Amino acid sequence: MDYIEITSKLGKRIRITDSYWEYIARVKHREMVALKDAVAKALRLPFEVQRSQKDPSVHLYYGRYEDKMLCVVARHLNEEGFIITAYLTRKIGRGQLVWRG
Length: 101
Fold this sequence. Notes:
- The protein is of the alpha+beta class.
- It is globular.
- The protein is 20% helix and 47% strand.
- β1 and β2 (13-17) form a beta hairpin.
- The chain has one domain (3-100).
């Protein structure tokens, strides 16, 4: 099984399998098809990271893409984690601020 691994701004090794990325980009959020590099950049160089209000192990990494924001949702497990989803948005959620650049 092939996967992508990115070390996030918070120092976590975030992974996603190629097949799950295809599911996100072709089924859940079709606008993400060509944005795999932008997702990696949002994890490495976000302008803001929030912790989910509902689940403290889930973090939302916000990056910029053209005139929108790119949100990458990742679950942290110790020093590692995995991408749950990624999508384009015009507004930031209401999580707990963890980091802001």
